[in-house]
């Protein structure tokens, strides 16, 4: 029952900060495209870079992996590198979102749409 009142307090904080929140969220969306995270697999034979919008922006394949001709291994390495990069990007976005929430005086753990 008391959790309901706790949530009301959080909602009140969000409503008081709504104009600033809207402005900060727009800026955050722009920053997401600038955040990058890299993942690699196969001792660097495959490297993937994603942005904070979780878009794959670069994939690099080493010459050795191309010469190997092992399609299944290449697919596994690509998947591993991309997933590692995505995980790192999610963490970076969560950190940025946490900083934004703290700057706005919002309580920790308040899940707002578009904030990771």
Give the spatial strand order of the biggest sheet: 1-2-3
- Can you count the helices? 4
Distance between the termini: 28 Å
Query: What proportion of the residues form beta strands (DSSP E)?
Result: 15-25%
Q: Would you tell me the overall average pLDDT?
A: 83
Can you give the helix content as a percent range? 55-70%
Tell me the series of helices and strands, N- to C-terminal: HHEEEHH
CATH class: Alpha Beta
Category from helices, strands and their pairing: alpha+beta
Low-confidence stretches: none
Oligomerization state of this entry?
single chain
Summarize the structure in short.
By secondary structure, the protein is of the alpha+beta class. Helix content is 59%, strand content 16%.
Structural description of this entry:
This protein is α+β, with helices and mostly antiparallel strands and 116 residues long. The protein has one domain: Ybab, Chain: A, CATH 3.30.1310.10. Helix content is 59%, strand content 16%. It contains four helices and three strands. The protein has a three-stranded antiparallel sheet. Strand 2 and strand 3 form a beta hairpin. Helix 2 packs antiparallel against helix 4. The chain is rod-shaped and about 60 Å long. The two termini are 28 Å apart. The model has no long low-confidence stretch (mean pLDDT 83).
């Amino acid at each position: 029952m008391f959790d309901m009142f706790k949530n009301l307090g959080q909602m009140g904080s969000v409503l008081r900060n709504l104009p600033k929140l809207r402005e900060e969220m727009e800026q955050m969306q722009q920053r997401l495209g600038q955040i990058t995270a890299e993942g690699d697999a196969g001792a660097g034979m495959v490297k993937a870079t994603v942005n904070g919008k979780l878009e794959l922006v670069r994939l690099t394949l080493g010459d050795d992996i191309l010469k190997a001709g092992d399609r299944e291994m290449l697919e596994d390495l690509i998947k591993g590198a991309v997933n590692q990069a995505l995980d790192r990007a999610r963490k970076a976005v969560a950190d940025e979102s946490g900083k934004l929430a703290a700057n706005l005086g919002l309580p920790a753990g308040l899940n707002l749409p578009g904030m990771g």
